[in-house]
Amino acid sequence: MERAMTETRTDILLDQFIAHLRVERGLAANTIQSYSRDLIRFLAFLESRGRAPEKAVREDVSAFLGSLHGRLSARSAARSLSAVRMFFRFLVSEGHMATSPARLVEAPKLPRRLPEILSPQEVERLLEQPDPSTPPGSRDRAMLELLYATGLRVSELVGLQLQNVNLEAGFVRMVGKGSKERVVPMGDKAREAVRDYRAGARPALAGPRNPADLFLNARGRGLTRQGFWKIIKRYGRAAGIRASITPHGLRHAFASHLLEGGADLRSLQIMLGHADITTTQIYTHVTRERLKRIHEKYHPRP
Fold first, then answer.
1. Which of 74, 93, 112 is a domain's end point?
2. pLDDT in the model for residue 297
3. Do 130 and 140 touch, CB atoms closer than 8 A?
């Protein structure tokens, strides 16, 4: 009887937490589904140890994480721990526990994956795809040129307003993560593409509405991240690029190609808007890996 009551109590807490994720946190359905699977696995583990969620201790969470070793990837195990942490934070906020037993449990170390970098030739093919004689093509060309010229995040690119771009001086003024402002040069080709777009295509897209957003969709509203993702993927396929094309891929190409051309890491950090230079240092690894592949391919005695 006591065990049945514990299971019922656990089910109620889980349902309340899922409702919290959906209503108050506004998480996507796929994310909620993943967290639900992780928590069902964790709660079953607690039950096997004869422990109710409110009575769990740090050793329970550590043991659960250990039980995932060899069954799940490090990335999936880290996501499971994230779900468990959120669940216990919810229980604490609702007054069911005094402190979270997952608070000090370390997440598994994730292997640092190097981004796949487009070659300069692939970037050139991509930039050649839009037809600038049409308003959408002129807009797309300006966006691709500007993205590759500045290394902006996609959210920053679609969030640009007219006042952020100084065509005369040739720079973009951005407010990035943490509300930190930075100024990034844009180069002549990007400046020309944006100037052409603003002069002809943008007024055609804006109509009488004429919002402050720089890049507009066919309805005269600001282009969304999802809209630009579809655009760049379409041009990637048209360019015959086999690698998966994303807006972030052009940001990676911007950074990697600058380093290969001799740019210093500190300047690159400022242009990318990285708070910590260790984030920028991944591109030094990318450059070394590419040099190693070139050496192995072309040296007579690899």
1. 93
2. 73
3. yes
Q: At 229, which amino acid appears?
A: W
Q: Which residues are catalytic?
A: 153, 177, 248, 251, 274, 283
For residues 143 and 285, state if they share a domain. Answer: yes
Q: Could you tell me the CATH number of the domain that includes residue 89?
A: 1.10.150.130
**C-beta of residue 13 within 8 angstroms of C-beta of residue 53:** yes
Number of C-beta neighbours around residue 259 at 10 A: 18
The amino acid present at 13, given as its one-letter code, is L
pLDDT in tens, 180-228: 788 999 999 999 999 999 999 999 999 887 899 999 999 999 999 999 9
Identify any residues that bridge with 183 across adjacent strands, giving them in sequence order: 173
Give CA–CA dist 102/59, Å, rounded.
Answer: 9
Co-location of 179 and 290 in the same domain: yes
SS3 call for 187: coil
Q: How many domains does the chain have?
A: 2
Length of the chain in residues, anyone?
Answer: 302
Task: Please answer whether residues 110 and 73 qualify as being in contact, where contact means their C-beta atoms are separated by less than 8 angstroms.
Answer: no
The β-bridge partners of 172 are 165, 184
pLDDT, residue 168, reads 93
Q: 134 lies in a domain?
A: yes
Of 27, 58, 93, which residue sits at a domain end? 93
Q: Name the residue range of residue 146's domain.
A: 120-298
Interacting residues of 116 by C-beta distance below 8 A, sequence separation 6+: 243, 244, 249, 252
Would you state the pLDDT for residue 111?
60
Q: How confident is the model at residue 302 (pLDDT cuts 50, 70, 90)?
A: low
Amino acid of residue 135: P
> First and final CA of the chain: distance in angstroms?
71
Q: What is the CATH number of the domain that holds 231?
A: 1.10.443.10
Task: Give yes or no: residues 88 and 125 share one domain.
Answer: no
